[in-house]
Design goal:
- The protein has helices at about 15-20, 30-35, 50-60, 60-70, 80-85, 180-190; strands spanning about 1-5, 25-30, 40-45, 75, 85-90, 100-105, 115-120, 130-135, 140-145, 150-155, 155-160, 165-170.
- The chain has about 190 residues and is α/β, with parallel strands linked by helices.
- The chain has one domain: Rossmann fold (3-Layer(aba) Sandwich).
- Strands 2-1-3-4-12-11-10 form a seven-stranded mixed sheet. Strands 5-6-9 form a three-stranded mixed sheet.
- The longest helix is centred in the last third of the chain and has 12 residues, at about 180-190.
- The protein starts with a strand and ends with a helix.
């Protein structure tokens, strides 16, 4: 099983480390050749505008959309959630989201770096709470009817799933808890 972690920019190393705990071959995806060698993809936190431009310049933007349409499991965390959303309400006019989850997001919706916080999340299907770590986290402003909301903070979605795409506005790789990565790998084993 080969799982890619987008490594163009952002916080990808801890996702690689989390995958390696499961004995999964984690591939740092930096180009189309790397991407074409994996069965699933994690899009980590980072700077969503920069990541968007790099996806387009490397040719991976369309490849990710096509692979998702064929059922490739994708996990997007923080900036990954923004990139996978259908609309970025405060994005630059030249920034294109992948549109793989029918949600509208606002970058840094919970505030700046100083406003970062942690919250015990009740996640659908989990037997105990998960400690969510929110750093300049995106805010989900709208959710389409085909999207399953798996967790909320103050009645706002922070974890959603649509088909084979799972997104979080928090950083599961920073928690001492691998259940979200486990959930993601289970999606791969079922695909």
């Amino acid at each position: 099983m080969k799982v890619g972690v987008l490594a163009l920019q952002g916080a990808f190393k801890l996702h690689v480390k989390a995958l390696e705990q499961f004995g999964v071959e984690a591939i740092e995806v930096r180009n189309l050749e790397n991407f074409n060698s994996v069965e699933a993809l994690i899009i980590p936190g980072g700077e969503s505008t920069t990541m968007s431009f790099l996806l387009e310049s490397t040719g991976m933007f369309e490849a990710i959309k096509e692979s998702s349409a064929e059922g490739m499991p994708i996990l997007g965390t923080c900036a990954g959630m923004i990139l996978l959303s259908s609309k970025i309400t405060d994005g630059r006019s030249d920034q294109n989201p992948l549109g793989l989850v029918n949600i509208e997001t606002r970058r840094n919706g919970y505030g700046r770096q100083i406003d970062s916080f942690e919250s015990d999340l009740s996640i659908k299907g989990f037997d105990r709470s998960f400690r969510g770590i929110f750093i300049r986290a995106p805010l989900v402003e709208k959710v389409g009817s085909e999207v399953e909301v798996l967790a909320e903070v103050n009645n706002r979605p922070v974890m959603c799933k649509q088909g084979s795409v799972l997104v979080t506005s928090f950083h599961p790789e920073l928690a001492d808890d691998t259940r979200i990565h486990t959930e993601f790998l289970e999606m791969l084993s079922k695909s």
